Amino acid sequence: MVPLALSSMFFHEYTSPEIFSFGSRAGLDGIEYWLETPHFWLRGLPVDEVIACRNDNPAISTITVHAPVLDLNPCSINPEVAEVSIQYAVRSIAIAERLGAHILTLHPGRRTAKRPPGAADAARFEHYLAALREAATRNSLKICMENMEPAVNSLLCTPERVRELLDDEPWLFFTLDVSHALAKAEEEPFRYIEICHDRLANVHLSRKKGKLLHLPLDRDPLMESVMHALKDVGYAGPLTLEIDDLNFPHTFSAEEKIAVLSRDRAFMRECMG
C-alpha cells in the first residue's frame, strides 16, 4: 500500500513530538521530515529526539527526509555559499540514514543571476553531483532530485531535463513536485510521470490555484487524475502532502490543520487504494 505522508513544515511552529502525534491523529502513516523544521534545525539537529518520536508513534511507519534548502544554493556563484550548501546536502545523507529513512530529497540549486543557466552553472551543478555521487556509494538511500517550478534561472524544471539527468546519473532517483509541475501547465505532471516514472521514488502532492502553489487537494479532479496516472504506472512510493499553510485565509490551529490532512488522506486513499 502506498504510504501517505505529511511534510513536517506544515506544522512549522510545533515541536517534533507534536508533529509526529498530529500525523498519527490525521491517519497518515508517513512523514517527510525537513531538516529545517525549526524545532530541529534551531536546536543543533538533535537526531536522537526524532528517532524517539518514531519509536513513540508506531503508526508513522515511513519517514523520508528533505535536505536543507533555505538560504542555500549548491550552484551559487559565491564559492563559500556553494560549498556550505554541498556540505549540508552530504551531511543530510548521514542524518537520513540515522533516522531510518530510505529516501532523501534534494534541490538542484539555481543560477544566482536571474538569467538562463550557462556552462559555468552546469559545471557547478556537476561539482554538486560529484559530491553526492561519492556519498551515495556508501549508503543504501534513494537520493532524489526534485523538479523546480519554471524560472529563467532554474536548472531542473522540465521532464526532458530530469530524464537527461537520470540517464547520466544511474544512482540518482526523482522526487516529483506536482505543484511545481503545474506552475507550467496542467499536463506537465503527466509528462513527468510518463517520461520519468521508472526512477520516480517520491511524490510531493498539492494543488495549484492561480499563482498559489501547495494548496490542499480538496478532492480536486485534476489531483485525482494525477493519482490515477501514478497508479497506472505502478507507483508504490510515498505520497507526501506538501501544503503551505501561509496560503490559508487565516492562521490555522493545529486541530484545523489535522482536519485538512484527514480529509486529504481519505481522498488519497480512495484514489490510490
Which key features would you list for this structure?
single chain, 273 residues, alpha/beta, TIM Barrel, eight-stranded parallel β-barrel, two-stranded antiparallel ribbon, 10 helices, globular
Characterize the structure shown.
The protein has helices at residues 16-25, 38-41, 47-56, 79-98, 119-136, 159-168, 178-182, 188-196, 221-232, 254-272, and strands at 4-7, 30-34, 62-66, 103-106, 142-146, 173-177, 200-205, 207-209, 212-215, 239-241. It contains ten helices and ten strands. The protein has an eight-stranded parallel barrel. The protein has one domain (4-272): Alpha-Beta Barrel (TIM Barrel). Helix 4 (79-98) links the parallel strand 3 (62-66) and strand 4. The protein has 273 residues and is of the alpha/beta class.
What's the layout of helices and strands?
Elements: E1 4-7, H1 16-25, E2 30-34, H2 38-41, H3 47-56, E3 62-66, H4 79-98, E4 103-106, H5 119-136, E5 142-146, H6 159-168, E6 173-177, H7 178-182, H8 188-196, E7 200-205, E8 207-209, E9 212-215, H9 221-232, E10 239-241, H10 254-272
Parallel strand pairs: 1-2, 1-10, 2-3, 3-4, 4-5, 5-6, 6-7, 7-10
Antiparallel strand pairs: 8-9
Helix pairs in contact: 1-3, 4-5, 6-8, 9-10
> How do the helices and strands follow one another from N- to C-terminus?
EHEHHEHEHEHEHHEEEHEH
Total beta strand runs: 10
Number of domains: 1
Biggest sheet statistics: 8 strands, parallel, barrel
Short description:
The protein is of the alpha/beta class. The chain is built from ten helices and ten strands. It has a single domain, classed as TIM Barrel (Alpha-Beta Barrel).
